[in-house]
TrEMBL record:
Residues 221-304 form the Sporulation regulator WhiA C-terminal domain. The keyword Flavoprotein does not apply. Keywords: Cell cycle, Cell division, DNA-binding. It comes from Ruminiclostridium sufflavum DSM 19573. Pfam families: HTH_WhiA, LAGLIDADG_WhiA, WhiA_N. Residues 20-105 form the Sporulation transcription regulator WhiA N-terminal domain. The gene is whiA. Involved in cell division and chromosome segregation. GO terms for biological process: cell division; regulation of sporulation. One of its GO terms (molecular function) is DNA binding. InterPro entries: Homing_endonucl (IPR027434), Sporu_reg_WhiA_N_dom (IPR018478), Sporulation_regulator_WhiA (IPR003802), Sporulation_regulator_WhiA_C (IPR023054), WhiA_LAGLIDADG_dom (IPR039518). Belongs to the WhiA family. Residues 127-218 form the WhiA LAGLIDADG-like domain. This is Probable cell division protein WhiA.
Length: 314
């Protein structure tokens, strides 16, 4: 099941108690998911969805609020038998007139609706509107892949209402046009979480947050591992260089001819090339700290460098 489907299934189970919210949901569905047609001078508003639960929800909400039933038609695509789409058709002028009145919409137009002013005054209704718009034209990417939530609609006004409402919540909405649709989208993970919270998709929100936390953890673990790998590489390279230098000293000057404080460390490094500076220091007698060991090994490097210089001039 896609993450979008998970969210929508949950939203279809959100209960609406107040009539104002039910009306706002119908308004959102029609505004975001509308397909208008003027056939034989009759106005016709149609909402098409592939989600059976959503189709049932629209149908029963309209019935409950207006006491009138929209028509429902079911289409099965011939190619894929499983592919079913549901059309909820508001053909009755009675319903349309009630909608026009309730939402102070001046006119239906083939491409647009013209709400004279937004009737979404209550917070509960704004949330209902957003939920409905998401159910109609929304989708959200699987958080494992990317953070992207969008609502696509043919209605420019709809995206503007969405943007306006979400601005009050501090959610940054961008609008673009795509194939004749207006698309309101949210990119930041934090904002998507807020949006899911507002529309009441709390289960999906938890799921989203879990993925987000895991992703963040994975990123920081990777960062630490990368950092440690880099450090380890540096340590290994240094040890290899030290051993080479000591071997050079051994074959030319002889380790026994080194200053006394360098003899032990040179022998230890030759024997234990894999040990850290701290571990080497602990093997010395008396014990020596990390920086002391480092200092002596640098001395050995310098001596080896001098031997090399001299062999060049000879
Ligand atoms: Zn309300």
């Amino acid at each position: 099941m896609s993450f979008s489907t998970l969210v929508k299934d949950e939203l279809c189970r959100v209960e609406l108690h107040d009539a104002c919210c039910k009306k706002s949901e119908i308004f959102g569905v029609i505004l975001a998911g509308n397909l208008f047609s003027y056939e034989k001078n009759s106005r016709n508003v149609k909402v098409v969805t592939e989600n059976a639960a959503f189709a049932r929800r629209i149908y029963s909400t309209v019935r409950r609020v207006y006491g009138l039933s929209p028509e429902v038609s079911i289409r099965r695509s011939s190619k894929l038998k499983k592919h079913i789409s549901y059309s909820i058709i508001f053909a009755s002028m009675q319903i349309i007139n009630k909608l026009l009145y309730d939402f102070e919409i001046s006119a239906f137009n083939e491409n647009d609706l013209f709400p004279m002013n937004t009737t979404l005054k209550n917070v509960c209704c704004k949330k209902s509107f957003l939920r409905a718009a998401f159910l109609s034209g929304g989708s959200v990417s699987d958080p494992e892949k990317t953070y992207h939530l969008e609502i696509a609609t043919r209605n420019k006004m709809c995206t503007e209402i969405i943007k306006e409402i979400l601005k009050d919540y501090g959610i940054n909405v961008k609008i673009i046009t795509r194939k004749g649709n207006y698309v309101a989208y949210i990119k930041e993970g934090e904002n998507i979480v807020d949006f899911l919270n507002i529309i009441g998709a709390h289960g999906a929100l938890m799921e989203f947050e879990n993925v987000r936390i895991l992703k963040d953890m994975r990123n920081s673990v990777n960062r630490i591992v990368n950092c440690e790998t880099a450090n380890l590489e540096k340590t290994v390279n240094a040890a290899v260089r030290q051993v080479e230098n000591i071997k050079l000293i051994q074959s030319t000057l002889g380790i026994g001819n080194l200053p006394e404080n360098l003899i032990d460390i040179a022998n230890l490094r030759l024997e234990y090339s894999e040990l850290s500076l701290k571990e080497l220091g602990e093997m010395l007698c008396p014990k020596l700290g990390k920086s002391g060991v480092n200092h002596r090994l640098r001395k050995l490097d310098e001596i080896a460098d001098k031997i090399r210089e001299r062999s060049k001039t000879l």
